[in-house]
Amino acid sequence: MDQTLTLYNHANVIGPTTDFAFKWGLNVGLSRKKALRLALAVDELVTDVVRFAFPGEEATFNVTFRADLATAEVIIHERGEPFDPARHPYDPQRAVQDGHFEGAGFAVVKHCVDDFAFINRGREGKEFRIVQLIESQHIAELHPTTVEDESDREDVSYTLSQARPQDTEDIAKLIYRTYGHTYAKEDLYYPDRIERALENEEKFGVLVRTDRGRAVGYFAVLLKSDSQIGEVGEAVVDVGHRRRGLMKRMLRALIDEAKERELTGVFGEAVTVHDISQRVNKHFGMMSTAFLLGLFPQERFVGMMDEMTQPITIVIDFRPLVPYDTVTAYLPAPYADQLHRIYDALGAELIRQDPRHAPADIAELPETTEMDTRIRYMYNHVVFVVDTPGHDLPGQVQQALSDLEDEEMTVACVDLPLDDPRTPAATELLRDIGFVFAGLMPRFHQGRDHVRLQLPMVKLDPDAIEVYSDLAVMLKTNILEELSWSSKDTETLSPSGAGATST
Amino acid sequence: MELERHGDTLTVRCRRDFNLMTVRHLMHHVEDATRIRVDLSRARIVDTEAVMALHELEQKGLDVTLLEPPSIFYEVLEVLELESHFDIERLVERPRE
Questions:
Q1: Residue B96: inside a domain, yes or no?
Q2: In this predicted model, what pLDDT tens digit does every residue of A265-275 receive, in sequence order?
Q3: At CB < 8 Å, which residues of chain B contact A?
Q4: How far is it, in rounded angstroms, from Cα A83 to Cα B46?
């Protein structure tokens, strides 16, 4: 969960903020050395805001701390004077001769962190984002992972129990034994990351052990930090113990646990390099709701599909745990039919608009957009989660993509709240800059349904994308048609997205 | 920040990081001192504001020495390519090992 400090531009905030950054860094798993460097980077950026962002006036700015199991990110957001760090490079000669140290702070920031991004958000100000990768030890480096194979035993019996922090090494070993280096969820190779996630209640899972205590099955739900839903995202059964109903037993236990925790739904991110995960999801009552092009880099799947040479496309499969009854949604006209079909599949009985609010025209949109930019540095994609769509939405998105050019993003996504009457107009604006439909993200942010639009920045071979359910087929067909993509056509697109069609 | 004056020598003991706030205090108290000793044994961080202040004091002809700066100080000097500009042997009373 994000932690945000709102600070005045006074010099006395620098020390406490730096101290907080250091201790927060340690708490999310950074080494002392990396936490200290993160703190120095925060010191430099906060100092810069205090000194230069608001000349002659008192103002506030935000510092947001955001972490997952592999990355620690700090976002400094201010609405001060326009500024672009790229135009102020540090020059050591000028520093020595004239005492002009312009750019020195940014030089130090870049040295201290694993990633630094500057995003100009127009009227909404500027964001400085710094990222430190959290070091962990891979299970293969920790202990031998071979154990006695007892799969031939006829009389083997199994016990299911809740996964606990002390089980983490067994879980990592099970993943490594079963998948080698090919499992997509990289965090599962690092016992300390699993332990941290369980301790922080970022996920819950079940573990299957044989009567001799060997871990042979694991299945977990990863909780979304901004909504009451979870991703059924980690599943493994030891090869020698398959076809014994363990996966079903684990999933049943997980769904029961999810209901007890009052989750409103569970979802899966099924890869499309094969259809196995999609079949499993369908078997467990999930419905395909979105088709996300090139969301994950191919490197995550090294060894699994040696022939894969393109980023991995994902199908979102969702199962509501609280029924959809009446849905308030302003469906963008070009995608209304597809969204209706998805809602039907999810069991929505009635889709209506709020009688007090008619859909807004573009002219009725506010000037500025309020949104959260979520950059997944390791996966080369960015998701803009819009709270209030405004006129400057396309401008803000394009500027951010231009600022992130060095990050080599493969796709950008925008999530618009469907219960907002301004969403159809915002969709129109995004379509004008090349965004296309991606699908429905059910209950994805603050429990609200969002329509997702996407802008692929690399071209993919559609023939290498395999989908299974009828809904996934529909989404793939329509989205590729909207992009005018044909087979065997790969090239990098410009971040502006204006040419997001095949040539 | 603790301050001590012995003749024209000002000794400063930083209770925390050597940053903008500390620099402002230090500059406020320099007055007519010709020699400044900055004890950084309790500082975790020395940032670019501090480096700029050291440069400025040296340019003014003051004799500045640092006591036990944290290792990240040397890193900052290296990134800013100022290692040769600051005579470390003279600047730091107890040079790094």
A1: no
A2: 999 999 898 88
A3: 16-17, 19-21, 24, 44-45, 47-49, 51-52, 55-56, 59, 72, 75-76, 79-82, 85
A4: 25
Interface test with B, best of A7, A10, A14 (most B CBs within 10 A): A14
* Interface size between A and B, measured as CB pairs under 8 A: 73
Q: Are A15 and B44 within 8 A, CB to CB?
A: no
Q: Dig out the tokens for A489 from the structure.
A: 């056509």
Mean per-residue pLDDT for B24-46?
92
Q: What's the gap between Cα A267 and its chain centre? A: 14
Domain residue extents for chain A: 3-133, 139-263, 326-483
At A53-83, the pLDDT tens digits run 999 999 999 999 999 888 999 999 999 988 8
Structure-token match 């995202």, residue found: A233
Q: How confident is the model at residue A150 (pLDDT cuts 50, 70, 90)?
A: low
Question: Is A43's CB within 8 Å of B45's CB?
Answer: yes
Q: Which CATH architecture has domain A139-263?
A: 3-Layer(aba) Sandwich (3.40)
Question: Nearest-CA residue of chain A relative to B18?
Answer: A15
- Chain B residues touching A41 at Cβ < 8 A: none
How much of chain A is helix, strand and coil, in % rounded to 5? 35, 30, 35
In a domain, B42, yes or no: yes
Report pLDDT digits (tens) over A426-483: 999 999 999 999 999 999 999 999 999 999 999 899 999 999 999 999 999 999 999 9
Same fold, A3-133 and A139-263: no
Q: Is A228 in CB contact (< 8 Å) with chain B? A: no
**Is residue B39 within a helix (H) or strand (E), and if so which, with residue range?**
strand B35-39
Reported ipTM: 0.94
pLDDT digits (tens, 9 = 90+) for A203-213: 999 999 999 89
- The CATH number of residue B18's host domain is 3.30.750.24
Range of the domain at B79: 2-91
10 Å CB burial of residue B60 (0-12, 13-18, 19+) is: exposed
Q: Which of B24, B72, B80 sits opposite A40 (nearest CB)?
A: B72
- Mean predicted lDDT score pLDDT of chain A: 89
Q: In this structure, which topology does domain A326-483 adopt according to CATH?
A: Aminopeptidase (3.40.630)
Interface residue of B22, B48, B84 to substitute, partner A, most A CBs within 10 Å: B48
Q: Which CATH superfamily is domain A3-133 in?
A: Histidine kinase-like ATPase, C-terminal domain (3.30.565.10)
Q: Under a CB-based contact definition with an 8 Å cutoff, are residues A25 and A35 in contact?
A: yes
Distance (Å, rounded) from C-alpha A228 to C-alpha A217? 26
**What is the pLDDT, as a whole number, of residue A204?**
95
pLDDT tens-place string over residues A346-356: 999 888 999 99
Whether the pTM exceeds 0.80: the reply is no
The C-alpha angle with vertex A29 and arms to A28 and A30, in degrees rounded to 5, equals 110
Number of structural domains (chain B) is 1
Contact B80 A104 (CB under 8 A): yes
